[in-house]
Amino acid sequence: MGQDKEITKVSYELKKRSVAVKEIQKIGANTLGIRFGGESLAGFRTASFDDHIKLFLETTEGERLGRHYTVRDYDPENKELTIEFGTHSTGPAARWASNAVPGDVAEIGGPKGSRIIPTNYDWHLLIGDNSSLPAIHRRVEELPSWTKAIVLVTLPDPADRRNIKSDADVSFHWIQSEDILLHKLKHLPLPAGEGVAWCAGEQDTITQVESILLKHFSMPKENVFVKPYWKRDKVKESLQA
């Protein structure tokens, strides 16, 4: 990897911040975007598209729980943080988001730091599902005009597809199942030049994606980034929600 494409890692002071719901927006059929605000967000930092925070909520049953979420957007001027919640499940965090109203309070911790992947590759391959779509959305928005991006996202419900604006030359592939995604990936013509792949989602699927990229396409391991966000039939606190 060239000197100008080195990964930069930065650490932040870990602190908890009290925030309140300011606005709720429906995004697709199974996602809510919730914008939080609060003076405690002064000094909040997020330098990478896949940064995540831990959100602490108190459910209607009085249970206190914590879940990891991607920082979809942060507006430092207005001290506002946007997080997207999947509402297709019946879990307590999904129920909280579905019932949230402006003024509801929560607490966040993090990010602990950022792993900054440069944008100056010839092409970017972004692979995921509904859980990683907020990070993919943020990445596509920040790519420069002279680069290319290929986006493969598994979305069983076509109503979850979204219009993502970018200065880059981006091709989107909305795919109905993980099996179809893996088949399409194997037969995907990759652009010329040096590329980077970022893949996140269901653990077993992402493991297979990584294997295809390393073995079938012979991509350098240092150019392939994988993040298991969740595991089928099993919820892990360590995996991102």
UniProtKB/TrEMBL annotation:
Q: Name one GO molecular function term.
A: oxidoreductase activity
Q: Which superkingdom heads the taxonomic lineage of this protein's source?
A: Bacteria
PROSITE patterns, sorted: FAD_FR
One Pfam assignment: FAD_binding_9
Which family, according to UniProt? Answer: Belongs to the SIP oxidoreductase family.
Q: What is this protein called?
A: Siderophore-interacting protein
Q: Which organism is it from?
A: Pelagicoccus albus
Which InterPro entries does the entry link to?
A: FAD-bd_FR_type, FNR_nucleotide-bd, Riboflavin_synthase-like_b-brl, SIP_FAD-bd, SIP_fam, SIP_rossman_dom
All copies of domain FAD-binding FR-type, residue ranges: 14-118
